């Protein structure tokens, strides 16, 4: 018994000093540790929330960049739209001014046309009145007077006066002949005036009509001295 008792301690003394650690490790893997307390749980939740925050922050940055880019594009479009509006206002103002000018010109043209129409109507009425007056005089007092004059001229042995139509034809022919002569003179007069204008610089190639100046008579210079020598 004593030997067994002694063998027991000898057996225990022969065990390796790392045996307790192996035993603890085996017990640790077989029985995992369970976290106890609120600090470890709070830290784990905070880490999860931090990771989630980083994820959402990255997404927010992407969306913010998109919004800022869209705002920059919007500012450019607004400036372009403002420039277009200013150009439109300038062009509209110019077009309105041109429209007002054209309307004023059209109004003046219409007024002139109305005046011309009224003048034409007035002149036509005056022409009709004059034709009626001429016809009345020709068929009335003129015819009676001409018949009396022709009758007396025949009694006196003279030829009757030419008819009124012949007188009018001769007058028209004389008027047209004068117009033709005046027209020809107006056409030819500018040509004659243009030909009669002298040129400012004489032409060297043209032959000179002036007589050459005569050299004065007398002894040439130096002739007296040459004789003495």
Blueprint of the fold:
Layout: H1 2-13, H2 19-30, H3 38-155, H4 164-196, H5 223-228
Structural features, described:
- With 229 residues, this protein is mostly helical.
- It has helices at residues 2-13, 19-30, 38-155, 164-196, 223-228.
- The chain is rod-shaped and about 165 Å long.
Short description:
The chain has 229 residues and is mostly helical. It has helices at 2-13, 19-30, 38-155, 164-196, 223-228. It is rod-shaped, with a radius of gyration of 67 Å.
Multimer state? single chain
The share of residues in extended strands comes to under 5%
Radius of gyration: 67 Å
Number of helices: 5
SSE pattern? HHHHH
Low-confidence stretches: 1-30, 190-214, 223-229
Return the structural class.
mainly alpha
Helix content: over 70%
Overall spatial form: rod-shaped
Q: Give the biggest sheet.
A: none
The number of distinct β-strands equals: 0
State the distance separating the first and last CA atoms. 190 Å
